[in-house]
From TrEMBL:
Listed GO MF terms: aspartic-type endopeptidase activity
Name of this protein: Cathepsin d
Upper classification of the organism: Eukaryota, Metazoa, Spiralia, Lophotrochozoa, Mollusca
Species for this entry: Plakobranchus ocellatus
Gene3D superfamilies: Acid Proteases
InterPro entries the record matches: Aspartic_peptidase_A1, Aspartic_peptidase_AS, PEPTIDASE_A1, Peptidase_aspartic_dom_sf
C-alpha cells in the first residue's frame, strides 16, 4: 500500500485505509482508492474482493454439515456500544482468556474468523503504536489448536494460526472459542484504533472449520435468537451511540417494519437487488437485477465501475482527475441531487443525497459516495452496501432464516 505518512500511523486502521468520505474501513476497500479524511492523500485500495468472490460457489441449497440449532431460548439480547472513529470505523472491546485480555475489535460481516495479534508475532511484523497481543501463556483456559488461518484485506494478508480460549463479549462468556492469533498483518493495521477483527461472516463450516463466535454464542445458549443487528450513527449527528445488538433487534434504534431479503449465497450476507435507480426518473442502473452484500467493512456504496460510472454521470458528478473511480460534485449541485433507491423484493430502500455525498475534510471537495470497483474477469460483480447505507437502514442479519432485514434507523 502506498500510503502511510507518519501521521497516518496515529490514526486508525481504517483511517489509514479509509477516509470519512471515502473510507472503506477495513476491508474495505474492496478495491478502491479513496481519499484520506485528514490529509487528502489518495490511498491505494485495501482489499480487492477477488479472493473471496473467486472461491468456488457452493450451490445454495447444499445443506451445511453442522446446521445451527439447539437454541436455549432463555437469554436476552445483548447490546454492544460501538465507538465511532470518524464514521470510518466502529469498534468495541472484547476479552480473550482467563483472566481476560482486552482487545478492541471492529465487526466485519465479510470476515469469517475473529482474530487478534499474537504475542508470538515477530516484533517487526506488526507496526502498531499501541500493540495489544494475545498471550497464551497467561491464560489458564488456553488450548492449542495450531491450524493456520488467513484473511485477505486487499494489499495484504492477515496470517497466523488458530487457538482456543474463552472469549467475553457484551457480558457473555463464550467457552472454547477458536480464534486466530495473527502473526503477520498488512501495514494497514499499523497504528489502528483496533487490535483485531470480530468476524460476523460465515466461516467454512462445510469445510470442517470451527464455528464463528456468533454461532457458538447461539450453540451455548447465550443468545435468544440467531440474529444480530447494526445501528450505525453518523459521527456528528445527535442521537444514540452506535450499537451492535446480538441475539435479535432493538426497537429503540429503528422505526417501521423490516424489508427482508433472503440470502442468495450460502456463505455470505449477499442478496438480490431488483433494480437501482435515482429518484425523479433521473436514471436506472442494475436493469437486470444484481447482487449486493451488506458489508460492515466498507464505508460507502461500492459497485461495478461501469454501473457506477453511469449513475454518477446521471448525477452530474465528474470523474476526479487522476482517479476516475472517484467522482466529484460542485456545491451548487448538492441541492438538486436525487435519492438513491434500491428496489428489493419490490420494495424501495432510499438513501438521501446527504447520506451518499461526502465532503473531503481538507479539500472541501464534495464526492459522490457511490464508488466504482473493477471486477476481474470471471468474478461475479456485486455491490457493497457499507456504512453510508447502514446509517440510513438499521439492518438485521439472520443466520438461520438466512436473510437480511432493513428498517429505517431512528
Ligand atoms: C503458547 O504458544 C506457543 C506457540 O504456539 C507454544 O509454543 C507454547 O507452548 C504455548 N504455551 C502454552 C502454555 O501452551
Ligand atoms: C470446553 O472445554 C472443556 C474442556 O475441554 C469442557 O469441559 C467444557 O464442557 C467445554 N465447554 C463447552 C461450552 O463446550
Ligand atoms: C438458561 O440457560 C442456561 C444455560 O445456558 C441454563 O443453565 C438455565 O437454567 C436456563 N434458564 C432458564 C430460566 O431456562
Ligand atoms: C425467502 O425464504 C423463505 C424461506 O425459505 C420463503 O418462504 C420465502 O418465500 C422467500 N422469500 C422470497 C421473496 O423469495
Amino acid at each position: 500500500m502506498n500510503l502511510t505518512p507518519a501521521v497516518v500511523l496515529l490514526l486508525t486502521w481504517v483511517s489509514v485505509c479509509a477516509a470519512h468520505f471515502m473510507s472503506l474501513p477495513f476491508s474495505p476497500a474492496r478495491g478502491l482508492p479513496w481519499q484520506h479524511k485528514s490529509f487528502g492523500k489518495l490511498l491505494e485500495p485495501c482489499r480487492p474482493i477477488g479472493e473471496r468472490l473467486q472461491r468456488p460457489i457452493q450451490p445454495l441449497l447444499k445443506p451445511h454439515k453442522r446446521p445451527i440449532r439447539d437454541f436455549r431460548l432463555n437469554a436476552t439480547t445483548r447490546d454492544i456500544k460501538l465507538a465511532n472513529y470518524y464514521d470510518n470505523l466502529y469498534y468495541a472491546p472484547i476479552t480473550i482468556g482467563t483472566p481476560g485480555q482486552t482487545f478492541n475489535v471492529a465487526f466485519d460481516t465479510e470476515t469469517p474468523i475473529t482474530w487478534v495479534p499474537s504475542i508470538h508475532s515477530p516484533p517487526r511484523q506488526i507496526f502498531r503504536r499501541i500493540t495489544k497481543k494475545y498471550n497464551n501463556e497467561s491464560s489458564s483456559t488456553y488450548k492449542a489448536n495450531g491450524k493456520p488461518f488467513e484473511v485477505s484485506y486487499g494489499p495484504g494478508l492477515v496470517l497466523g494460526y488458530r487457538s482456543q480460549d474463552n472469549m467475553a463479549i457484551a457480558g457473555a462468556t463464550v467457552h472454547n472459542q477458536t480464534f486466530g492469533e495473527a502473526i503477520l498483518e498488512p501495514k494497514m493495521f499499523a497504528g489502528s484504533m483496533i487490535d483485531g477483527v470480530f468476524g460476523l461472516g460465515f466461516s467454512g463450516i462445510n469445510a470442517g472449520e470451527e464455528l464463528p463466535v456468533f454461532d457458538n454464542m447461539i450453540m451455548q445458549g447465550l443468545l435468544p435468537a440467531p440474529v444480530f443487528s447494526f445501528y450505525v450513527k453518523k459521527y456528528d449527528s445527535d442521537g444514540p451511540e452506535s450499537v451492535l445488538t446480538l441475539g435479535g433487534t432493538n426497537p429503540d434504534y429503528y422505526t417501521g417494519d423490516f424489508i427482508f431479503a433472503n440470502l442468495s449465497m450460502p456463505d455470505r450476507w449477499q442478496f438480490e437487488i431488483d433494480r437501482i435507480q435515482l429518484s425523479n426518473d433521473v436514471g436506472t442502473s442494475c436493469l437486470y437485477k444484481c447482487q449486493a452484500v451488506v458489508d460492515t467493512g466498507t464505508s460507502f456504496i461500492v459497485g461495478p465501475s461501469h454501473e457506477v460510472e453511469g449513475l454518477n454521470e446521471m448525477l452530474g458528478a465528474k470523474p476526479r482527475a487522476g482517479d476516475p473511480k472517484l467522482y466529484t460534485l460542485d456545491h451548487s449541485q448538492l441541492d438538486s441531487l436525487p435519492d438513491l433507491e434500491f428496489i428489493v423484493n419490490g420494495q424501495k430502500l432510499t438513501i438521501a443525497s446527504k447520506d451518499y455525498v461526502s465532503k473531503g475534510e481538507k479539500s472541501g471537495q464534495y464526492y459522490s459516495g457511490i464508488v466504482g470497483k473493477e471486477f476481474k474477469e470471471g468474478e461475479r460483480p456485486v455491490w457493497f452496501l457499507g456504512f453510508s447505507f447502514l446509517r440510513t437502514y438499521y439492518t438485521q442479519f439472520d443466520k438461520v432464516k438466512r436473510r437480511v432485514g432493513f428498517a429505517k434507523a431512528s
